[in-house]
Predict the 3D structure of the following.
Amino acid sequence: MEPKTIKSFGYGTDEEAIRVITNAEKWIPGEIRGIKVRCQYTLPITIQSSTNM
């Protein structure tokens, strides 16, 4: 698995998102007619900011 970010928000969010994805449970590979194949998957991640002002 080679996770990468498409759009950077800065402040270390890219590294944290990649860390979370790579430490997740094992991924099930894509299959076509029963044969395991490489596939691309986009996983949207929502970042919520909180300000305590």
About this structure: The CA atoms of residues 7 and 43 lie 12 Å apart. Residues 13-22 form the longest helix (10 residues). The helical segments are 13-22.
